[in-house]
Structures are given as C-alpha cells and as structure tokens.
Amino acid sequence: METERIGPPLRAGERETLRAFLDFHRATLALKCEGLTDEQLRRRASPPSTLSLLGLVRHLAEVERFWFRRVIAAEDVPLVWSDSGDFQAAYDTGGADRAEAFEAWRREVEHARRIERAAESLDATGHQARWGEDVSLRLVMQHMLHEYARHNGHADLLREAIDGTVGV
User: Rounded CA gap, 144 and 13, in Å?
Assistant: First the structure.
C-alpha cells in the first residue's frame, strides 16, 4: 500500500482547513503502519498496555464510526469490535486480522468524509448520547483532529521502537 499525504492549504476557509488537516492526520497513521509485518503491527508499546499500531487503527475506526455515523448522521450502528460500546476492545489485537482492521478503518473514513461533505455547514449538529447534548460538526472535526494528533504521537513512539523509523 502506498500512502499519499498532502499538506493542508496555507490559506483556506475553516471547513477546508479542518478537512485537510484531518486527512493529513489520517494519512500519517497509514504511513506509520506501512511496510510492517502483522507481528510488528501487533507489537505492544509496553506491557501490560495493549497499545499497538494495529490497535490504534482499530480504535480510530471505532472513533470515526462513533462521531460521524452515530453522532452526526444519527445512524443506529454498533461499534465494530464491541457490542457494549467499549472503545478499549479495539486495542485487543490477539485475534485481529490486519486486512479486516485496515478495511474497517478505510470504510469508516469514507463514511466520515461523505457525512461531512453532505452537512450544510460546520454548525450542523448531532446528538452525543453519552453527554446528553447536541454537538456541532465543528466540534466533531476538532475532536477527531485531537484524537489523531494524540494517537499519531503514540504511533511515532511505537514505530520507532519497532524498527527505528522516525518522522513521517
């Protein structure tokens, strides 16, 4: 798999900038995983933590699904790897399948892009049931940037520990 990462525009509107930064971070996660074996993708950060690159891919598929499909689009879909709504279940990669994880993540990213593009504006709202509050697409986009930025920091450390690769 060859990932292309495009830098965000230097001068653009708010929505285009948020969209571009989110896609930049999505591509960064994919780049952090490129060229690794299944075993390397499953390698844990530091036991007892279950954090691994494959676990991050699975977790971010869940996060994309939750915020865009369940909150903004109000789709009645369960999480991919947990019937109980436990986002931590995605980190358990013991029986995880690499192809399934990346396919689920790519599928959820495409759903998220479709939902974001279909929204009239960043002021569009959805209901976040756990909080009992309505939230804007703007908040969701910002939250997703936060999720990816934080987890890409984890991915930096995981990848360096695996094969010494830094940067990206």
Answer: 18
Closest CA to 75 of 29, 27, 37, 126: 126
Token pair in block for residue 49:
């933590």
Q: Which of 168, 133, 152, 167 is nearest to 29 (CA)?
A: 152
Tokens for 156?
Answer: 């930096």
The alpha carbon of residue 41 and the mean position of all alpha carbons in its chain are separated, in whole angstroms, by 16
pLDDT in tens, 67-87: 999 999 999 999 888 877 777
Structure tokens at 48: 């007892």
What six digits make up the tokens of 140?
A: 């969701």
φ, ψ for residue 94 (rounded to 5)? -50, -50
User: Which residue, among 53, 71, 68, 86, has the nearest Cα to 157 in the 3D structure?
Assistant: 53
